[in-house]
DNA sequence: TTGTATTTGTTCGTATGTATC
DNA sequence: GGATACATACGAACAAATACA
């Protein structure tokens, strides 16, 4: 007979578990307030610091928010994807990930996002994309910073049009991480204006495919566009892993 | 002139930020140990409780682990998808993430994963998939639990063949969350054997496409297979968002 | 193997600034 | 503005756990 190693369960963890369970089960609804720390330490039968450590953890996970001096105690927050975005960002920032993997993932995501958007978009969402395109056009003459902001707005509009929170979050995270890795190289590019004009042309063709409801074409164009934009920054020996997404 | 509302930054948050940054930048590598709590309270110029609250938050995010009595202090952990899985599970339980979104994301991921695997797989990786398929075949008569394990092994093999860590991690997390939501319904299905046989047939056709190097076909079959398997558990009014991925 | 020193886990008391009534 | 109750933060104290001689 072999026994498993036991890990001691801290007092604060059991406090976290109980409150977390209450929030997730809906016994504590967003907007409601927890009892005060002193009440909680009586209810849970633990010391003050233990209660506070538990509340800190819950707060960092976005489940509650406490303000100094509030006599009503910590407030239960609406469950938001903030924690998901944070943990995803940590994974993507881990240095074990290469630029090729990140770009490949982004090609995969944005390709499918455009495919979905081509079919599921509402007229309002299409208008948002048109607006973002207009801003991009005027931003060509205002420098890379402006252009990049409009570019981001376009991709966000496409992601929103999918109606899928996971696609939006992963898209945002991967885009931010990729940009963080190579932004300096783009800023210092000798022909940044040419880059912007090419990018504009690519985005325009993707948008037309989305407008026509041609998901397959939108996906292909989006992936190709990302490849053309980022491939030169990907080490040559890793570039091969991007090609299968271009068929 | 209008001013923005300021939110007070707690002492423990600044401690968290500094340690988090050090870990994510690689200045603190996994396996290394932080200074003791008493050292940290001197270095940061805060009280011990504040240090402890910061460590608890870092621990709940999976960045460090501290053991009672360890004179070496808290140990920096390797970046793991645990936090990602936890936050995604929480969102799913709180109904912020619907099953339709999760399945859609999985169709998107696995479709592209198979497309990549069809082109990038090594013969060894193909052999792994064949092995997983063999186990699935024999597991049909051994019950759903065995079958599900082999099924997971197959999808993991495909994800590994892409060579992309993000695809593997996101695939694993989303799959586990989806299975957690509907596993009980599958177990209690009246014709679970028929389900397994159908799934087996689908997997077999996907694998043949991967073997032939036909990425487009592999992607289409994989998405279709997921749809057929999970669509009945997706609320009818949300099922439409899965269809654009089936073209 | 058995201490011994050090650390973490936890509690408690106190001081201070803050939000609500 | 004042009273009250609260969260924030500090630090001392003790128990339990760990590493190391």
From TrEMBL, chains A, B:
Keyword Transcription: yes
SUPFAM superfamilies: GntR ligand-binding domain-like (SSF48008), Winged helix' DNA-binding domain (SSF46785)
Keyword list, A-Z: DNA-binding, Transcription, Transcription regulation
InterPro entries from the UniProt entry: GntR_C, TF_FadR/GntR_C, Tscrpt_reg_HTH_GntR, WH-like_DNA-bd_sf, WH_DNA-bd_sf
Pfam family, one: FCD
Domain HTH gntR-type: 9-79
Classification lineage: Bacteria, Bacillati, Actinomycetota, Actinomycetes, Pseudonocardiales
Protein name (Swiss-Prot/TrEMBL): FadR/GntR family transcriptional regulator
Highest taxon of source: Bacteria
């Amino acid at each position: 007979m072999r026994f498993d190693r036991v890990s001691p369960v801290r007092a604060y963890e059991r406090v976290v578990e109980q409150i977390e369970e209450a929030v997730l089960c809906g016994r504590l609804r967003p907007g409601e307030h927890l009892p005060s720390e002193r009440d909680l330490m009586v209810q849970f039968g633990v010391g003050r610091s233990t209660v506070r450590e538990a509340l800190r953890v819950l707060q960092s996970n976005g489940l509650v928010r406490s303000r100094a001096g509030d006599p009503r105690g910590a407030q239960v927050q609406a469950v938001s994807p903030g924690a998901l975005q944070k943990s995803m960002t940590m994974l993507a920032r881990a240095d074990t990930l290469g630029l090729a993997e990140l770009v490949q993932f982004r090609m995969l995501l944005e390709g499918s996002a455009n495919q979905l958007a081509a079919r599921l978009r509402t007229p309002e969402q299409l208008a948002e994309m048109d607006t973002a395109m207009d801003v991009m056009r005027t931003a060509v003459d205002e420098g890379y910073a402006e252009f990049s902001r409009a570019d981001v707005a376009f991709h966000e509009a496409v992601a929103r049009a999918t109606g899928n929170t996971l696609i939006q979050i992963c898209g945002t995270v991967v885009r931010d991480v990729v940009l963080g890795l190579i932004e300096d190289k783009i800023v210092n590019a000798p022909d940044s204006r040419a880059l912007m004009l090419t990018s504009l042309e690519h985005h325009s063709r993707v948008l037309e495919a989305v407008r026509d409801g041609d998901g397959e074409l939108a996906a292909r164009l989006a992936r190709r566009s990302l490849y053309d934009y980022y491939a030169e920054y990907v080490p040559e020996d890793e570039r091969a892993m991007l090609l299968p997404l271009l068929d």
